[in-house]
Amino acid sequence: MPESEPLNHVINVVVAGLGGQGVIKASDILADAVFRAGFDVKKAEVHGMSQRGGSVNSDVRFGPRVFSPMIPDGEADFLVVLAEDQVETNRNRLRANGVLIDPSAIGAAALSNPRTLNVALLGLLSTRLPVEETHWIEALRANLPEKILEINMKAFQAGRTVTR
Amino acid sequence: MIQPTMERILLSGNEAIALAAKNAGVALGTGYPGTPSTEILENFSELGGKAQWSPNEKVALEVALGAAFAGARALVTMKHVGLNVAADPLFTAAYTGVSGALVVVSADDPGMASSQNEQDNRHYAEAAGVPMLEPSDSQEAYDFTAAAFEISTRWRLPVLLRVTTRICHSKSIVQPRAIPKPEAEPSFVRDIEGRVMIPAYARPAHRKLRAKLAEIAAWNETSDLHQVIAGEKSLGIITSGVSYQHVREAAPQASVLKLGMTYPLPLNRIQVFVESIERSVVIEEGDPYLDHAIRAAGVTVEGKPEMYRFGELNVNRVRRILARDESPEPVPPRGKPPQLCPGCAHRSVFQVLHDLDCIVSGDIGCYTLGVLPPFQAMDTCVCMGASIGAGLGLRHVLPRDQARRVVSVIGDSTFIHSGITGLAEMVYNPPATGHVVIILDNSTTAMTGLQEHPGTGRSLDHSPAHKIEFEDLARSLGIPHVHTLDPVKETDALKDLLQNLLAHEELALVIARRPCILASRKIREYEAAAQQSNAECHYATRET
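ok -> structure tokens follow
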């Protein structure tokens, strides 16, 4: 979707996985990228106890105007899941004909470091969203420490070039 | 890390509160870590504000109050249950008032994402008699923090900024604005009758408080903290906080009265709104606080069915409330529950407690997860510090064969927070069978995200500070048996020791000490940085 077309509705993305996988980091990057692209954006998640190895998910919503920070069940346009065993527990978040993006879309072998899976799946997601690549690159730079930036840039590009 | 800026910026509610506090010229921020409030002080510190963790919320509020007595602006942050601990100073601080400004942030956790209850702290505003503001997104978290300081300064009262998990931890766009800073530097001005709450001075102070609240209520009728969204006359919604956002999405056609200051309430304004509408519904998370207050004032509104008192609201639940739908709600699929990290030292302790069939009086922290399989080694968990008192109570009345199996377990940060008084109780009123307390010392406040406390030897910003030694403290209290060991390297020794102590029926404190695996690398870095700065300091001294 080119950025020049005005977006007249809210796009809902759920990012899900397990504590320690970088779910929150991925949603931070996503929210920052769409913010840089000029959209209204809200992001919601729950911190604390759930981060001790349990299920973690984060909602990112963007468009001309966003009200609730939480995506109602059954209204997510995209469900990005970092752990295969978290797909079923989150499937109820997706709308009919919503898009599921899970690790099988990338293939762990394509990544030089499995810890960059979160950013690789963002790369794949990025090809489906009305946000220019430059905003994604800026968001990656702003949200990742220097020493792991390059490997994540590569993962992002690996995700962008996946053809399903 | 957020930067001090006046640009449009994407911020969490906690970050927005911190930025506003910095821009409002807050001289001191205090608090005790607690989800979802923790990041406020951390961000305030990163922005260059003076921020410090106190041993608990009561002390934090008292320190902030002292700063406000001195004419400074002070911020104190805590989670909802923390305000129970700090309630004692809060209620009387409403009588004394402040000379600078004092904003108390209560971060509530409806739905209990990371808490032991879902109490609704809006009741505290009315009970203590302090004005309360409720932001509905990060922009308002910024604006209402600023407004809270302005109101506190003007009426010389503490102000409660009541936020919830979805305000604290949701990000949305903020346009910061300049906030008027305090006009005078802190300076002591004696006001004995105003600040020394003996009955003779407290009686007039209470009347003065009520007069201030009446004035604020009148001001609030026309304040710009509230917002009316004009819509259809057939449905009007009265709401506040994050519920407002759900309402706008669930009922875009409705008329809405969004309340910004929810104590004291603008009752005339509410009445005027209700009179213009056919059906007025109050949409609020938690207890029917607004609903009861509005109906008690003789204004006819519709509340929510009792089933929606429980848990968070969301767009779908607001749709259901508006449709008067009381049918059972769909149960979301259960995710993977949280668990103790692989390699966590608490695992070894709970395995031993499980093997010894102990009755475990537990406490608040990561280690509460010891209740889950495979350990199931926790029998009570109520509030910060309760492990020791409740363990002693069990010991006092249980038959001897059960009493001697009772062990209290408490984390290091929780021990500092409210376990020390438990030890005083233990040596003062020892049970006939003695007692065993284990401090699970992982050298950090792990559950809330690795914050420092007075037992770590580091300040909020991780720079070196005085360290309280638990062993010295316990011995000074007169506890006869004090032992320290590493629960991972010395698991068998821990088991033998516990068996021994339980059989001896005396008072004992065991410190199971091993740094949290998530914190240990950072702790080494902080220690290295401290050594480096020590060495440089030494070098500089020698040179001069």
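The first helix of chain B runs from residue 13 to 23.
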